[in-house]
Design goal:
Strand content of chain A: under 5%
Helix content of chain A: over 70%
Low-confidence stretches of chain B: 165-171
Radius of gyration of chain B: 20 Å
Radius of gyration of chain A: 17 Å
Helix content of chain B: over 70%
Largest sheet of chain A: none
Largest interface: A-B, 34 and 33 residues
Number of domains of chain B: 1
Oligomer: heterodimer
Order of helices and strands of chain A: HHHHHHHHH
Order of helices and strands of chain B: HHHHHH
Distance between the termini of chain B: 35 Å
Number of strands of chain B: 0
Low-confidence stretches of chain A: none
Mean pLDDT of chain B: 85
Number of helices of chain B: 6
Number of domains of chain A: 1
Mean pLDDT of chain A: 92
Chain lengths: 212, 220
Amino acid sequence: MTYFADVATLARKDLLLELRSRDTVPAMVLFVVAALVVFNFSVPADAEERASYGLLWIALVFTALLGLTRAFAAEREQRVLDGLVLAPCDRSAIWLGKGIAVVAFLLLAEAVALPAFHLFFEPVGLELVAGVLLADIGLASVGALLAAMAAASRTRELLLPLLFLPLVIPVVVGGVGASIAEDPGRYLAFLGLYDAVFAILSWATFEYVVTE
Amino acid sequence: MWLAAAAAALLVAGLGLALFWIPEVEGDPAFPIFYLHVPIALTAYACFGWAAWKALRLLWMRESSYDLESYTAVHMGVIFAILTLVTGSIWAKYTWGQWWVWSSRQLVLFLVLFLFYSAYFMLRYSVEPGPRRANMSAVYALFGIVLLPVSFLAIRLAEDVIHPPPVVVTREGPQITDELMLVFVVCLAGMLALAAALYTNELAGKRLDGSLRELRESLQ
């Protein structure tokens, strides 16, 4: 039970920090809306309407990326990560706590992005919402691990997109498929599979990323 | 040394057979490239698999020498992945008239893998050498081998909605006869021997480089 108490404490720390500083979530919200507006001007008028679902997914992935570049900023600047690694808790709890915080930030950004998409472009269906929720888990689990890697590197913000984007191509495929296919079930199942596989892998390997 | 010789002999034999012994495939003058392209692709998979295996050993045994082995295997894998993209592109041009076809699963998968493993080098070059870099590289190499089947599945799923279903790729491949299989296996063995020769050579070079650096540091 202490494991989950540790996770809850770590996630609470991130949420509290965000509540006080308001650094990340407002930036993500503004970014995703700005991206949707840019897309409006980048697609030819006679383009197929369904193409806008693809653009929504690009916006969501890049918004997640924006949030993730800041995910370990506080830990790095104040050298908190060293303390956390030394703390008597399982290291994977750090990953899980961070992942939960990232999911919370993503949900807040999407709470604005999806209604905005509905207003500007196409209707948002239930299968799209389900796809977004499943994708959030995958994006956060892979993202929290890669953000920890990038935070330890010299190039930091530059490195994260290079590591992150090739890994989340399957998420985009699953998400777009769930939004536009006639049988979204297969794509939702694929997103679930991706979540399970990469969450387990990230959970098991996070320890090695933060320790020597 | 004997690996390189075996690779040369097998590849010359295999390609000679492919060019002069196998009957020409009707309507596909570029078909002999099959004997180059597919073994190269399989060799790239083998390199990435080997890298992941060494990475797993590193994380499991905490033996730092596996780091260099995993790195060298990724290095070879990326070279063979680039060759796969190039030969695949040539084949696509001759068979379908275009240098790039998104409907070719193999090519798209290799593009994803190429992007993924190129970032591996970026990661390595921007982290200070040491056990932490070894661990991170190993974790990344493990992610790669898991991403491979997941991406393959994703590309198959994407064909149904995102890309138009393949229209030009409906050509039925020639029936694999015993002769074709023999030539293919010879080519594959040659390519694997080539990769192994390059791998051992590169590994020896990198080890030498490392010990030279240590020596220089101890002299200073």
